[in-house]
């Protein structure tokens, strides 16, 4: 697959209306490839926690209770939605007390996840990076096993491709100025 094609046609899959299956073994091999992302000082600031299709109902149930306390309606909606995806990662990254290194780590996470999303696209699957409010809750951090020196950067849902998702054209206003 051409790189330009992959960059333009990779899409965030946001419809979870049917039960999806993915090639987990393939996805795991893509994670290792994605780590060839640039990262300053070779700090490799990333860590992923994988929730397999099989584990999703139990995980979704725990997360729903922590995220939507006393709101059974929301809990049920959440569980119904996320258990449809093929599997998901929780994205974690190293916190650094030094401002420069901390910023570099966060930028490296973006390059790593973009690599992974492009590779997933090339392998015929879909994905979506998700950052719901509840990822900052201590209870959620505890459920996913985040260490004290880690940020939670969200989820990466791994899905089937969704042929109906359209390319959101970029505005590219003031993209480049000349000095
Ligand atoms: C850091 C980050 C966080 C995101 N969080 C969410 C999210 O919480 N929910 C969601 O539906 N999409 C989320 N997205 C996906 C973007 O909304 C998506 O990239 C955008 O709609 C453009 O679509 P495309 O990826 O298909 O080009 C996130 C993307 C990034 C890079």
From TrEMBL:
The keyword NAD applies. Residues 8-156 form the Nitroreductase domain. It holds the Pfam family Nitroreductase. Its EC number is 1.-.-.-. Transmembrane segments: none annotated. InterPro entries: NAD(P)H_nitroreductase, Nitroreductase, Nitroreductase-like, YdjA-like. It is an enzyme of class 1 (oxidoreductase). Gene3D superfamilies: NADH Oxidase. It comes from the Bacteria. CDD domains: YdjA-like. Its cofactor is FMN. GO terms for molecular function: oxidoreductase activity. Keywords: Flavoprotein, FMN, NAD, NADP, Oxidoreductase. Belongs to the nitroreductase family. This is Putative nitroreductase.
């Amino acid at each position: 697959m051409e790189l330009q094609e992959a960059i333009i046609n990779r899409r965030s899959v946001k419809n979870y209306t049917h039960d999806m299956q993915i090639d987990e073994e393939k996805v795991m091999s893509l994670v290792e490839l994605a780590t060839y992302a640039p990262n300053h000082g070779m700090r490799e600031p990333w860590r992923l926690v994988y929730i397999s299709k099989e584990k999703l109902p139990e995980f979704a149930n725990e997360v729903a209770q922590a995220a939507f306390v006393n709101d059974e309606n929301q809990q049920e909606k959440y569980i119904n939605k996320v258990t449809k995806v093929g599997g998901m990662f929780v994205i974690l990254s190293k916190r650094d007390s030094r401002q420069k290194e901390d910023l570099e780590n966060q930028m490296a996470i973006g390059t790593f996840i973009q690599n992974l999303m492009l590779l997933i696209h090339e392998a015929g699957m879909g994905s979506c990076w998700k950052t719901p409010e509840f990822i900052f809750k201590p209870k959620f951090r505890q459920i996913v096993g985040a260490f004290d020196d880690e940020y939670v950067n969200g989820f990466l849902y791994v899905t089937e491709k969704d042929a109906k998702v359209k390319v959101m054209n970029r505005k590219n206003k003031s993209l480049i100025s000349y000095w």
